[in-house]
Design a protein that fits this description.
This protein is mainly beta. 0% of the residues lie in helices and 53% in strands. The strands form 7 sheets. Strands 24, 25, 26, 27 and 28 form a 5-stranded antiparallel β-sheet that branches. A 4-stranded antiparallel β-sheet has the order 3-2-1-29, with no helix packed on it. Strands 4-5-6-7 form a 4-stranded antiparallel β-sheet, with no helix packed on it. β5 and β6 form a beta hairpin.
């Protein structure tokens, strides 16, 4: 049987103004047709989402001062979400979450207080209370934004052994060994990789081969290229590259980073410049070279995501309430605009689930 080309596209939002939660679209990657299906579920500040590997459950952070996580069942007939349960995220302002490859554990980064926690995923999709917890401490050079820790993303290593956490407040990437039986998190040895002071590491991604990685630094709008030792979980910085053209003099605020599944191209989003930056990747070293910048056709691109077919890129323009779709060129890495932008209230993140 041929693989399905139809997906549900879920958009997480901040629930202020006219936004009520998580919105859903049906997308046909064969034709490129995107059809709005409306509100999937009401949810408070469901800014970041994750879909279970089995495609039957969806998880959302509730990025509130008293943070929480909510689990949902996906209705495959219409894309609507039915809430299962909500648990404390063990910190304020949870801003990023990820499931491990088995779908049995979920991890969250709590921005406000700089903590990380792991949660068991039960067979019915519900979340148990936190099984592992780590509280970061310290500060860095920016007197306001880095006066304390701010965990910003959680990423599993390709072999599911290590959890990589970026902390914007500390200018650090922290690596934890993950126990798949207990959900426990233990600092690796060494546990910390530093980036340049004042960089503000935000999001992190691995190359498909698992031997190279990149961290996007929000405050300086730079990318740090790293070598990754699969055996030890140790990261080594080897390059720092701007996400912006050299002549740009406006405000710098990078948001999202992703690698094309073919491993040849790296993409980042620039708020203020309002573009997706495209970089080519040296397949041997992982060093990157800037190519071009493509307008996201909106303001303040937050998250973006490459669809499961690796044919399209969806950009969430937070301050213009719009979702823009681009066709990906796998040979040159370029982005071609596709249709009109789609109205979406305060979009923050985009994820996909198989529609059947």
């Amino acid at each position: 049987m041929a693989a399905s080309t139809e997906f549900f596209v879920y958009v997480g939002t901040y629930t202020r103004s006219n936004s009520r939660g998580i919105y859903v679209y049906r997308f046909d990657s064969g034709s490129g047709k995107l059809s709005p299906l409306g509100l999937a579920a009401e949810a408070s500040n469901a800014s970041f989402l994750a879909v279970h590997p089995g495609n039957q459950f969806l998880y959302a952070v509730n990025e509130d001062p008293v943070g929480s996580l909510t689990s949902f069942v996906i209705d495959k007939s219409n894309g609507k979400l039915r809430r299962i349960n909500t648990v404390s995220s063990r910190g304020g302002g949870p801003c990023h979450l990820v499931l491990d490859e088995t779908g049995k554990w979920l991890f969250v980064a709590n921005y406000n207080n700089g903590s990380v926690a792991s949660f068991p995923v039960r067979s019915d999709g519900s979340l148990g209370e936190a099984a592992g917890f780590v509280q970061h401490s310290g500060s860095s050079v920016h007197p306001q934004r880095q006066a304390g820790p701010h965990a910003h993303s959680v990423t599993l290593s390709p072999d599911n052994r290590f959890l990589i956490v970026t902390d914007l407040g500390l200018d650090q990437i922290l690596v934890y060994r993950f126990d798949p039986k207990s959900g426990g998190l233990t600092p690796n040895n060494p546990a910390i990789t530093k980036v340049d002071a004042g960089s503000g590491p935000r999001h992190f991604t691995f190359a498909p081969d698992g031997e190279k990685a990149w961290v996007l630094n929000e405050m300086t709008a730079t990318i740090t290229t790293l070598k990754y030792d699969k055996a030890t979980g140790v990261l080594t910085p080897i390059q720092t590259t701007s996400t912006l053209p050299s002549q740009f003099a406006g405000a710098r605020s990078a948001a999202e980073i992703a690698v094309h599944p073919n491993g040849r191209f790296l993409y980042t989003s620039n708020r203020g410049h309002d573009t997706i930056a495209i970089f080519s990747i040296d397949p041997g070293t992982g060093l990157i070279r800037p190519g071009k910048w493509v307008s996201t056709r909106g303001r303040t691109p937050r998250n973006f995501a490459i669809d499961p077919s690796a044919t399209f890129l969806f950009a969430a323009n937070q301050d213009s309430n719009s979702l823009a779709v681009f066709r990906l060129d796998p040979k040159a890495g370029g982005l071609e605009t596709l249709g009109d932008v789609v109205e979406t209230p305060i979009p923050v993140s985009v994820v996909f689930a198989a529609a059947d």
